[in-house]
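Example S7 (structure tokens).
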């Protein structure tokens, strides 16, 4: 898991760096390296935190 992914908590806003069309997503959970995010345009997606480095959104 990347350092940033390890600090993600429910309620934080993120973007997927390879899928900007998904819009901003809200972290639902982060447990055991699995991160669940609900994106505005894509819906709920579960990631392996070791494979995808999500980008934290500060200015939503």
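Recovered sequence:
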């Amino acid at each position: 898991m990347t350092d940033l992914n390890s600090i993600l908590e429910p309620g934080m806003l993120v973007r997927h760096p390879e899928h900007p069309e998904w819009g901003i997503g809200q972290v639902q959970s982060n447990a055991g390296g699995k991160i669940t995010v609900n994106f505005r345009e894509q819906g709920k997606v579960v990631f392996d935190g070791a494979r995808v480095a999500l980008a934290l959104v500060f200015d939503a």
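Notes on this example. The first helix runs from residue 3 to 7.
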